[in-house]
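Translate structure to sequence.
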């Protein structure tokens, strides 16, 4: 819509500029035509401007449409249209101005070199305007398609969250309803907050960091309840600006992986450490968890873990381009995952 307005303004400026140019030539440049009168010159040059400039516009638009079918047809329309506009403009000039000085058509040829030359300027100017705006229209369409594609990919990636967590949480709540109803209520409230966040807030490409932290706290509360005292979970969230914008659910796969693959040996220290620091315009998220061979990884577990980690990289590339760090390493029996941007 905005580009259409700009195009209209440019065309109007183009018409007005050539009208002033032609009118000034008659009024100031050639004194022999001044006796025709101001009103006569205004009307005459308005008509000439519309024929030359308006004709150039129609011819070029017609050639553009023909170009979709045939280059030869487009060139034919350009040449034929150019000659027709030239003849029409000079016929008007002859009837209402030049005939007062030339007795016969033979003495004033429509097809002399100057006839072609004088139409070149408005014709080329119109051609440049059309080509320029066509380029920007195509560029804008391509950008719009890229944005739509990016949005679609982001929505798809955000939707690829492991269903295991939801299934296991519902199972846990189901068994707690009978044994520990108050704890079941608390977990159900945590789950409700998480689902509400996913349904409504996660529709945006960015959310306040505090909301993401609240979501992680709900997730961690549920997971801690499921793991019990076998796993020590420590968290640290340091936010300088709670409204700092981050992509939603970006940290979720790392936290899910930590709880899914944490060691479960009874005679060893099983731990998960989660740290998030936001300072100025930087965010650093780091997760550590103990690992060993006691965690049985099914094909489905590996599938969803792989999807989650790939999603992080894809989403950050789409949103932040190359301005981020995403690393996963394992040192001895400790797995490290880090996101910085």
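Result:
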């Amino acid at each position: 819509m905005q580009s259409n307005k700009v195009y209209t303004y440019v065309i109007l400026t183009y018409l007005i500029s050539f009208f002033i140019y032609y009118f000034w030539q008659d009024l100031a440049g050639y004194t022999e035509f001044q006796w025709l009168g101001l009103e006569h010159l205004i009307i005459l040059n308005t008509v000439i401007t519309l024929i030359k400039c308006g004709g150039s516009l129609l011819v070029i638009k017609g050639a553009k449409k023909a170009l979709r079918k045939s280059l030869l047809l487009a060139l034919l329309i350009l040449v034929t249209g150019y000659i027709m506009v030239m003849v029409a403009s000079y016929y008007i000039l002859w009837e209402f101005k030049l005939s007062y000085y030339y007795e016969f058509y033979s003495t004033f040829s429509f097809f002399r070199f100057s006839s072609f030359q004088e139409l070149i300027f408005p014709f080329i100017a119109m051609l440049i305007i059309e080509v320029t705006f066509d380029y920007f229209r195509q560029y804008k369409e391509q950008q719009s398609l890229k944005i739509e594609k990016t949005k679609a990919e982001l929505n798809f990636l955000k939707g690829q969250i492991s269903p295991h967590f939801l299934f296991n949480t519902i199972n846990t709540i189901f068994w707690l309803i009978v044994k520990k109803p108050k704890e079941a209520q608390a977990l159900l409230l945590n789950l409700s907050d998480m689902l509400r966040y996913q349904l409504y807030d996660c529709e945006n490409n960015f959310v306040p960091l505090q909301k993401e932290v609240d979501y992680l706290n709900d997730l961690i509360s549920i997971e801690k309840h499921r793991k019990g005292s076998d796993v020590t979970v420590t968290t640290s969230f340091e936010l300088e600006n709670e409204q700092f914008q981050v992509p939603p659910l970006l940290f979720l796969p790392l936290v899910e992986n930590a709880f899914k693959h944490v060691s479960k040996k009874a005679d060893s220290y099983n731990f998960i450490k989660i740290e998030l620091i936001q300072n100025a315009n930087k965010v650093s998220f780091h997760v550590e968890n103990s690992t060993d061979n006691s965690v049985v990884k099914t094909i489905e577990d590996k599938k969803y873990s792989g999807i989650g980690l790939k999603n992080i990289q894809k989403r950050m590339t789409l949103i932040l381009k190359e301005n981020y760090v995403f690393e996963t390493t394992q040192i001895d029996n400790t797995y490290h995952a880090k996101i910085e941007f």
